[in-house]
Specification:
globular; 6-stranded mixed sheet
Length: about 250
């Protein structure tokens, strides 16, 4: 017997038409949320941050590469990760890499941040075949100032993190082995997007979104929402593209 409800073409069309109404409402809400996101106040960045890049030290303003907007993804790759970046973040890194050309023609520069030292980022970038600028925030206050990482003291004050460290589920134990870090260190990194604007010579922080917001999930997860069979419940196991078991 089929595992799903079977219907006629007419029944499918009626159900699809009803779903289309809900999808239109969802899209309209999305447009309103985008409008409100762009209405957020901008906050001037006062500190003179200096980052390690493949081309030497750069300021935040220099990461714009002459454009007026900067969008950065913070990949979970802390200085304590001995194997590599978070596999889920690496999946998203694969996918944002392909968008960089199109963003650059729309006045947006795209980079990725991580807290690991630059030599380890460069080696991992080469392994993954990425082209985007990979910028190290190692030994800077930047990730802590903008909520992209937690200090040990901050992490210890969050009950959910303490619980995961003290009694980690199997998937989290597997993740810890994949990145090569103790969970108390690995979970201090935060995956998320952060946006900046540059106007009249000044840089402004405009937006941050962190996991578990769906926007921080790999883009292929949005495609999977259109497939007929749902993914299993619970956190999915993520694999780096060169480590899939098959």
């Amino acid at each position: 017997m089929p595992s799903h409800k079977i219907g006629t073409r007419e029944e499918w069309q009626q159900a699809r038409d009803e779903l289309a109404k809900a999808e239109a409402e969802h899209a309209e809400l999305g447009r309103e949320v985008t409008k409100r996101r762009r209405e957020l106040p901008w906050v001037a960045v006062e500190k003179d941050y200096r980052f390690d890049t493949e081309d030497g030290k750069k300021t935040l303003a220099e990461l714009f590469e002459g454009r007026s907007q900067l969008l950065a993804y913070n990949i979970m790759f802390g200085p304590d990760y001995e194997v590599g970046a978070c596999p889920g973040c690496s999946n998203l890194g694969d996918e944002v890499d392909a968008t960089r050309l199109h963003l650059s023609h729309r006045d947006v520069s795209l980079v990725c941040f991580s807290r690991a030292p630059i030599d380890r980022l460069v080696a991992y970038k080469q392994r993954m075949g990425w082209q985007f600028p990979y910028v190290s925030t190692y030994e800077t206050e930047f990730p802590f100032d903008f909520g992209l990482a937690l200090t040990p003291a901050q992490a210890g004050e969050i009950p959910q993190i303490r619980e995961m460290v003290d009694d980690p589920p199997q998937w989290l134990q597997d993740w810890g082995r994949q990145v090569g870090a103790k969970l108390e260190d690995g979970l201090r990194e935060g995956p998320g997007f952060i946006a900046f604007a540059r106007e009249n010579g000044r840089v402004y922080h405009t937006y941050t979104v962190m996991a578990p917001d769906p926007f921080v999930a790999p883009y292929h997860s949005f495609l999977l929402e259109r497939t007929p069979i749902a993914e299993p419940d619970g956190p999915p196991r993520a694999w780096r593209k060169d480590e899939y078991p098959d």
